[in-house]
Amino acid sequence: MKYTVSLEIALPRERVVQLLADPEQMPKWLRGLVVHEPLDGAHGQVGTRSRVVLKSGQQEFEAVETITRREPAVLQGIPQDVVVHFEREIVGKGMWSATRDHLSESGPERTLWVSENEYRFDGVVMRLVGLLMPGTFRKQSLRHMEDFKAFAEDGKDVRG
Questions:
Q1: Whole-prediction pTM value?
Q2: In degrees rounded to 5, what are phi and psi of residue 115?
Q3: Coiled-coil stretches, from where to where (predicted)?
Q4: Number of folded domains in the chain?
């Protein structure tokens, strides 16, 4: 299953990418985040593997995230015409996913965030979930992006 979601954020791209890359900010916008801890490497750096636990209702989902691309490596002084790339793979029980985020300037003090997502499922149950509920995955991705936008633009914290 593949899909793309996007939105525009009313902030300069450099500020947006710095907020996205800051692990201290993640609990404020990533709804349901219980744990995001590096197993090896430094947070956000290519090759770093992290344990991620998300909770939705009474269910918890645990996975390992691997950062596969971060360009440019330094998130200060990024030239206007450069697209910022954050990419990661997540492996959990019954699924593999890849997210390819692209952030570009869409105008003065505005950032366009495009997120390409791909999921693969193992086992009958997870394949059925993917077939019967593909919109759920898209809605969840967009909700995370909208939560980030509300946090970045207005300081809204999903924790309360």
A1: 0.90
A2: -120, 115
A3: none
A4: 1
